[in-house]
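User: Structure tokens for this complex, please. No commentary.
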Amino acid sequence: DTGVSQDPRHKITKRGQNVTFRCDPISEHNRLYWYRQTLGQGPEFLTYFQNEAQLEKSRLLSDRFSAERPKGSFSTLEIQRTEQGDSAMYLCASSSRQGKFYEQYFGPGTRLTVT
Amino acid sequence: AQRVTQPEKLLSVFKGAPVELKCNYSYSGSPELFWYVQYSRQRLQLLLRHISRESIKGFTADLNKGETSFHLKKPFAQEEDSAMYYCALGFQKLVFGTGTRLLVSP
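Assistant:
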């Protein structure tokens, strides 16, 4: 297991198109997170799962965004009708409990460019 | 509301100089605070967390609840410390600051 992986690494799409990103967490991790990072900003939380249950969604996650983790393993993040403001790096992280602490391990990210 | 402030976008020092990366937070309760680092062309990774009170790669960070700060310090900077540093707050979801780029020159 080489860590959290994300696919694709880069995506260029035209405004109005739908895109889907995939995240494969570290195999024994039960929690999976999605963050978005725009230029000059730190990562911003979007949503997270514990196993297949989506436990929290940010207000940033508009109706055009949907995330799933159907079998508690990989996750997908879909953006419908993309807008130029969706251009960002989308980061996935996974974690498992170590005492009271969940250390989040990040993937390399998917860079989305909406033209 | 939870918020993390990193006032410096860029900190440039010479090798061997002391480094202090500032982080202030707002949180009503006992915070869980972290420093993450991103080296060039690498993914974001945890550097240290306040609860462990450890020193990683010579870096330390002390939580000051009175000043609501969690500054990252290193007495003697090395060129390989050059990276983007993010302060983060949270238990499940993380709230990140905007980051400080540390540039260590020879």
